[in-house]
Amino acid sequence: MRRVSGVRAVGVLLALAALLLGAACGREGGPGAAAPTGLTYPVAQNVQVPGSATFAKIQQAGRVKMGVKNDQPGLGVQDPTTGQYTGFDVEMGRMIAAGLGIPADRIDYVVVPSAAREDAISRGDVDYYVGTYTINDNRKQRVGFAGPYFLAGQDLLVRADDPSITGPTTLQGKRVCSVTGSTPIQRVRQQNLTANVVEFQNYSQCVDQLIANQVDAVTTDDAILKGFAAQDPQRLKVVGQVFSQEPYGVGVARDDVAFRAKVNDLIQQAETDGTWQRIYDATLGKSGTPATPPAIQRY
Ligand code: GLU
What we know:
This protein has about 300 residues and is an alpha/beta fold. The protein has two domains: about 55-150 and about 245-285, Periplasmic binding protein-like II (D-Maltodextrin-Binding Protein, domain 2), CATH 3.40.190; about 155-240, Periplasmic binding protein-like II (D-Maltodextrin-Binding Protein, domain 2, 3-Layer(aba) Sandwich), CATH 3.40.190. It is about 35% helix and about 20% strand. The strands form four sheets. It has a five-stranded mixed β-sheet with strand order 10-9-11-8-12, with helices on both faces. Strands 5-1-6 form a three-stranded parallel β-sheet, sandwiched between helices. Helix 3 crosses helix 9 (about 255-270). It is globular and about 60 Å long. The site of glutamic acid has 12 residues, from helix 6 and strand 11. Glutamic acid binds near residues 182 and 183. InterPro entries: Bact_solute-bind_prot3 (IPR051455), Solute-binding_3/MltF_N (IPR001638). Keywords: Signal, Transport. This is Glutamate ABC transporter substrate-binding protein. Pfam families: SBP_bac_3.
């Protein structure tokens, strides 16, 4: 390996310090500030969404209430020190806000776990939700979905030194952890993959259990599991046998058809003008897995 000279190392350190200082002194500051990824989106002017109650609310407030996750690396995560949110889902949400005329510093982040999403959206606690939210007919009875903006699939996270779990059919007798109200936990039960299912509100809690040897596997979307594995590759690995399709949608009020159409337009635009790819490359794509935007399914 090539050694970095002392002078260069100091130079790099200085540059880093300048970057950090720059970030700390940034004009916006606080959780609403631009993400450390440096991604920004042009804020649309004179936006109108005729017939949309959600948009009327956003416009009146001059702010948007965005439902997110805060513990899913690469997708939706909150930095405990800066309070800033980052990740693919969060960036999609910021892009949508900008398209609705709302800049990043006027977004209020509302953390909603999987089990509470339909309630939060239908009550109007959030204007829209971006957080690994699988589009399906069951959920469509209570909420609407724009998208899909990403295609994931169910997989397994296990301890790196465990060769015994190689796919869904090897889970019998194993302790498997997932999240209340998620599609993966339903699938484990429906397909009787194991009788020993452990349930939490958040995936990070399941991962803690896995590391502590209290469960043998965590199951959810590959995109989520890869983020956890990347944080702790010594102890964790993703099995890599995907056994479902999880198309991610933006959750919106079920009957606000005009708002759903507008969000679909904004996702479509981001997919065609390269914004989607820029977001992916700066977030999830850092893991090295390439991806392209999926076709939007309007209904
Ligand atoms: N995509 C799945 C779901 O919507 C799992 C991830 C999650 O719980 O957010 O249930």
